[in-house]
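task queued by scheduler; priority normal; single chain, no ligands, no partner chains; default sampling; output format set to C-alpha cells
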Amino acid sequence: MYETLQPVSIYLVNSIAGGIYIRKFLKERYPGKISLFLWTGLYLIFQCTAMGFLSGAYPFNDILKAAADIIVILALQMLLYKKDLLKQLFVTVSFIAGREIIKYIIVALNDIQYWMIKNLLISALSNSITTMKEAEAWNFIIRGVTWLIFVSVYAVLMIAYLSLISRKFVRKDYPLKTHEYAFLMLPSAAALCISITLKMLIISVENDIATAIYERVPAAKFWVPLICFLLLGVNVSSVMLFQKLVQCNEEERKRVTLENQMVQMHRQIEEIQDIYADMRGLRHDMRNHLESISALVKRTSGSDRTELDGYIGKMEETVDRLDLSYRTGNPITDVIIHQKKQEAEKRGISFDADFTYPDRQQIDVYDIGIVLNNALENAIEASSQTPGEKNIRLRSYMKGNLFFIEVENNFIGDLVIDNETGLPVSSKKDRQLHGLGIENIRRCAKKYMGDIDISIQESGDRKKFCLTVMMYERYFTPEMQ
C-alpha cells in the first residue's frame, strides 16, 4: 500500500507546488484559477503514467525523465499561460532542479530514519511483541509514520525552496535579455546535472542487485544531504545576486537620467534667464515706442487715425503676450509655470496656479525646477487622457521650516503601486524609459530631508491624483524679530 501511496503523494506535492510556483511568474490564459487546476491535474497524470514507464530505461532513465519533464512542463506552460519562452524555461529548469536535489536529501534522511527505526524503535518493541499479528500491526504503523514523515519533509522543503526563489525574484515584470536569463538558468542546469550524477553514484547495479552508496560509504549519509543543501543555496543565491544587480543597474540608469535632466535643466535655465532679461528690455522699449506713437496719433485725424489706432491696439496685444502669466518671485519658476500653463490650455485643460518661490529657504531653483517640470508634465499627460472637464491645480505654501508643493490633476483608470518603491507604475509599454518623473521628484525632495506623498480622491466616476512634495532646508534659520 505505502509503496504505491509514497510516489503518488510526491507527484501530488510536485503538481500543486509547481503549479503555484509557475503562476507567480507567468500570466494565465484563462480567468480565475483554471490554469492552475488544469496544470496540476495534467502534470499529475503525466507523472503517474510516464515516470514509471521511463524508470525502466536503465541506465539512461534519469536523463530521459529529466528531458521528458522539461518538454512536458514547457508544453503545459505554452498551453495554459501566455508565451514568454525565456521566463518559462527558467521556471521549468529551476523547478525540476530543486525537485531532484530535494529528492536526494529526502532519500538520505529516509535512510537515516530507517536506521533509527531498525536499531532503536524495533529493539525497544521486540520484548513487548509476542505474536505475528502484533508484529504486522507495528510494522504497518511504523511504515505509515515513515511515509508521513517522508512526504511531509519533502513538501516542506519544496515549498520553502520555491517560495524563496519566487520571493527573491522581486522584478518579475522586468524585461530580461537572453544572456541575463542564461546567467539565471546556469546554476539550476548545473544542479540538475549534478543530481543525475548523484543518482548514478548513489545507486549501482551489480549482478542484477541494486546497492546504495550509503551501505558502502556510511559518511555519504552526511555529505550527500550537505551537497544538496549547498546546491539549493546556490540556486537561490544566484537569483538574489541577479536581482541585486538589476536593482543596481536601475539605480545607475535613474542616476544618469537625473544627471542628464539636471544638465539640461541648467542649460534651459541659463537660456530662460537670457530670454527673460531680453523680454524685460523689449517690453520697456516697446512701451516707450507705443507712447511716442500714441502722442503722434493724437495730432492726426480722420481715416488715418482710425487705422493707426487699430495698428497700435495690435501692438499692445503683442506686448501683453510678452508678459508672463505668473509672478512667483523667481524668473525661472515664472517661465516654467507659464510654459506648462500654455501647454495645458492647448490640450483643453484648465490650469490654476498659486505658487510662490521660497526666497527665505535655501532650496536650489534647479531642484524646484525639476520638481515642477516633472510634476506638471505628468499631470498634463494624465489629464489629457481624461474625458470631460479637465483641470490642473498647483499651489505652494510654507509651514514653519517646511516648504510644500501640491499638484492635483484628473485621471482615468486604476493606479498600480509598486510594492518595492511605493510609487505608481508607469502605464506606458516601455517602463524603462518612462515613469522616472516621480522618482526624480522624490530624489530632489530627499535631498532636502523631505519626501513625497501620493493620494487619490474619488468623486463619483471621477478621480483626482494628488501629489504633495515636502522639502526642508537643514541650514534654514528664521529671521530675527
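post-processing summary
- The longest strand covers residues 462-472.
- Residues 429-435, 475-481 have pLDDT under 50 and may be disordered.
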